From TrEMBL:
Residues 8-191 form the Ketoreductase domain. GO terms for molecular function: 3-oxoacyl-[acyl-carrier-protein] reductase (NADPH) activity. NCBIfam families: PRK05653.1-3, PRK07231.1, PRK12826.1-2. It comes from Gordonia neofelifaecis NRRL B-59395. Its EC number is 1.1.1.100. It comes from the Bacteria. This is 3-ketoacyl-(Acyl-carrier-protein) reductase.
Length: 247
């Protein structure tokens, strides 16, 4: 049986680890080829090799805050596999601190990577996809963009901004057959979240009706849904994947 993404090509930023890697893994299982972009050239090359090598996965060093880098990532995908059907804007960083202690640099970096990076990825993908007459863009926001968390004025602002950006972009490109949707993960078990102090982890866990953290594969499933024809009549939507936290 052909997979949900048979013969599709996907570009995934922040694809060398965590949620991005899990999405790549699931996409390949559903028949797609993937091109991963990541800041760490060595790590992204290793990830692509682990995922099956050149036939199904390529790894490209990419700084998502650079328009040239994002274009080069796309050009590499087109050269390798002929075109891009799916774009996943997942790359992200955190620089948590209370507003009083947060440096201007910490604010700027987080806004740049998340918000500008997602804008560049969405813009580049949309330009390519509208020529093809179809495509799906999946942008990773966060529950932090819905509720706002102490110590995350930068991250919460960026993640809320991704929702507004996605909705505006969705309206601009819908007529061309291109869909833009968002995922808002809650507490997902990754290297980044497991580095949290235990008391903060426990406090977050207490807010989750399902009583557990999510797995990266559970975000990957929703990304697969939004990338595939199963969601063909959905654009500009925001799907919360949180175990019911802060609903």
């Amino acid at each position: 049986m052909a997979g949900l993404l048979a013969d599709k090509t996907a570009v995934i930023t922040g694809g060398a680890q965590g949620i991005g890697y899990a999405i790549a893994e699931r996409f390949i299982a559903e028949g797609a080829r993937v091109v991963l972009g990541d800041m760490n050239a060595e790590q992204v090359a290793k990830a692509a090799a682990e995922l099956g090598g050149d036939a199904v996965a390529r790894g490209i060093a990419c700084n998502v805050t650079s328009a040239d880098d994002v274009q080069s990532l796309f050009d590499a995908a087109i050269a390798a596999f002929g075109g891009v059907d799916v774009m996943v804007n997942n790359a992200g960083i955190t620089r948590d601190a209370t507003m009083r202690k947060m440096s201007e640099t910490d604010f700027d970096q987080v806004i740049d990577v998340h918000l500008k990076g997602t804008w560049l990825g969405t813009r580049t993908a949309a330009a390519h996809m509208r020529e093809r007459g179809s495509g799906a863009i999946v942008n990773l926001s966060s529950i932090s963009g819905k509720v706002g968390f102490v110590g995350q004025t930068n991250y919460s602002a960026a993640k809320a901004g991704i929702v507004g950006l996605s909705k505006a972009a969705a309206k601009e490109v819908a007529h061309a057959g291109v869909r833009v949707n968002c995922i808002q993960p809650g507490l997902i078990r990754t290297a980044m979240t497991e580095a949290m102090p235990e008391r903060i982890w426990d406090q977050k866990m207490s807010e989750i009706p399902m009583g557990r953290a999510g797995e990266p594969s559970e975000i990957a499933s929703v990304a697969t849904f939004l990338a595939s024809d199963l969601s063909s009549y959905m654009t500009g939507t925001v799907l919360e994947v949180t175990g019911g936290r802060l609903m």
